[in-house]
């Protein structure tokens, strides 16, 4: 199994699978872009049977390229159609969103204002105080970049990213690392994803979450089986497990939102989510990444 999710989180999910089924899972964790590059180079002989944890936009690309196996799982029947492929080629089990991790101690020590919007991050007071994941390796970062383009329009978003670059102290490899670096006090602000922040808050770090007032992009975390996978029957059992009440309830212990009706995630508020277009993101990802690399690599 390949995944882009944090390994500690996935080990808990895998333990649930192995407890409830006769499937033994060999897990390999990579960032989203790293995982996609590996899949793209290995196909049609992908060295995994399935993916559990990946961006929805990559699922759409993989589906278009014929990489995915169709399997209609009965445990997913009550999950709304918007969260799953009609032919069973991919299943969205949770969804997550971009957010800012704010180290409140650093803000106080350095006399910095607490940002409330994406536009606020361009203020020179934050020079060197922002850590952002690299879209070349991180799906969290690509969600951020593609969301800005949907909020502002592409031309303005590129101008924004060039200005933001002046305040970025580091581009990290993973989407969770900015939350950790902000939590440890290495930076005042980390552009990251929701659960990475909540996990550090639960661990007692002096950070808070801010959802910029313009809104944030969100993405389904999806699972799929690769076409002609060697261990298809085992992979089908995993897909079935993810869609059960037990599987979704386990996911809800560490995810802010899951897709099964009646199963509540970890948050008790309504985040300000934009109407994110994952299809547009999938169709334009390669072009956007090529331009990013020319500008910032």
TrEMBL record:
Kindly give the Gene3D superfamilies that the UniProt entry links to this protein.
Periplasmic binding protein-like II
Q: Which keywords does the record carry? A: Signal
Task: Indicate the secretion signal residues.
Answer: none
Q: Name one GO cellular component term.
A: outer membrane-bounded periplasmic space
Query: Is Signal included in the keywords of this UniProt record?
Result: yes
A Pfam family the protein falls into: SBP_bac_6
Tell me the GO BP annotations in alphabetical order: thiamine transport
Its Gene Ontology molecular function terms? thiamine binding; thiamine pyrophosphate binding
Tell me what this protein is called: ABC transporter substrate-binding protein
Give the organism the record lists.
Answer: Salibacterium salarium
